[in-house]
Design brief:
This protein is mainly β and 79 residues long. The chain contains no helices and 6 strands. The protein has a two-stranded antiparallel ribbon with strand order 1-4. The protein has a two-stranded antiparallel sheet with strand order 2-3.
Amino acid sequence: MSVVSSPLPPGLTYSSTPVAYHGADEHDREPNRYGRRVVQVPGHTWPARPEECSEGRAEWVSDHPDAPLVCCGCGLDVS
């Protein structure tokens, strides 16, 4: 599997932990086909891991032009 990564704004990093899938419901989870990773935001802890996430919303983590769109529940880059 190839890892998809975009440039991140200063201060943000990608987690090195592999993500197998996104979603807690075994009937509704999505395989991580594109190697997407969790964005680490200083001073913020995501409520869940992608494999345990039940959140359906995503938000931009900053106003920076390179800011990724991330899942609000686990920080998975969904851009």
